[in-house]
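Practice record 12: protein with nicotinamide-adenine-dinucleotide.
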Amino acid sequence: MPRTTVVILPGDGIGPEVAREARLTLELLVPEVEVREELLGGAAIRATGEPLPQQTLDACLAATAVLKGPVGDPEFDAADVRPEQGLLGLRTALDTYANLRPSVLGDVDLLIVRELVGGLYFGARGTREDGTVFDTCEYHPRQVERIVRRGFELARRRRGRLTSVDKANVLETSRLWRRIVDETAPRYPDVQVEHMLVDNAAMQLATTAGQFDVIVTENMFGDILSDLAAAVTGGLGLAPSASLSDGGPGLFEPVHGSAPDIAGTGRANPTAMLRSTALLLEHGLGHADEAGALERAIDAALEQVKTPDLGGTATTEQLGAAVREQLAVDDARVLS
Ligand code: NAD
Ligand code: IPM
Ligand code: MN
């Protein structure tokens, strides 16, 4: 059997800083797994001229799972070739259409299931003769069906509640979305479904996030709502995600970006990246025990060690080290 391989894409800004902690933790938990690093985003543009070099793409396609830091650099904001294009290309190449973004804190335990390879990000775009610039939100019914099914499946295994978020009062794609949710619902009689317009969903998330179980929504709405859900459950520094296909390697990445405002200062919270590593262990490698151990270690470390975004003074490395110390404590307890 080929060896289990994890490709790490450190990315840009705080990416390499949080990716280092993830790599050390992964190597501690599953030393038998082969780990290799490749370039993506701004770092890749600087080295090769392309945001997703062929070598990176080949390595990711051949990997068991991919762990990705954020990409994006103000240096390329106005350029034609931009870091984010590499990320969108990678998501498409891996067909990781189901982006799972959990938010957990206090009485809030929700999961945003975001469609990741369609919609406004991938529709027709351009400039008309009169100078009008356009991006188009496009969905084929099959693209909607597969993500909606994922939403129902996940809700069935959680608290059995699914909120489908759309803008059906305005958009054709949202009316398609709503129709497919309604057509799918009878196959999941154990799941209670509701439709919610996206503006209201944003308000409800900000005020009473505890009401939600699973939220299923299209690409752009999911992008925006997941930052909001992160904000009401401890902040972007804590929010992980898993992007899954129907069989190929999954892509595991924090919800947050490259945080150029704090890059290089040691202030980045590595928790989102470490929680993404836990999701990789569980969904990408099938190591549920190690994933559970890592989740417990992160929770225990966060009781005592806090980065500046959480009101503390710890550095990225100090929090990473504290998590690995907790893993050793947990290990000793299991062995004794
Ligand atoms: P951002 O998420 O990078 O930062 C928003 C705010 O949150 C900043 O104040 C930042 O310091 C803070 N923050 C983010 N992550 C943090 C962490 N781990 N610890 C502590 N504080 C943290 O969003 P932005 O500034 O709008 O975007 C910066 C760049 O990141 C852009 O180029 C954008 O395209 C890119 N981006 C990439 C991804 C990705 O690769 N998945 C996601 C979002 C944004
Ligand atoms: C995210 C990011 C990306 C997205 C950008 C960088 C393309 O914001 O993963 O949330 O919008 O999907
Ligand atoms: Mn985002």
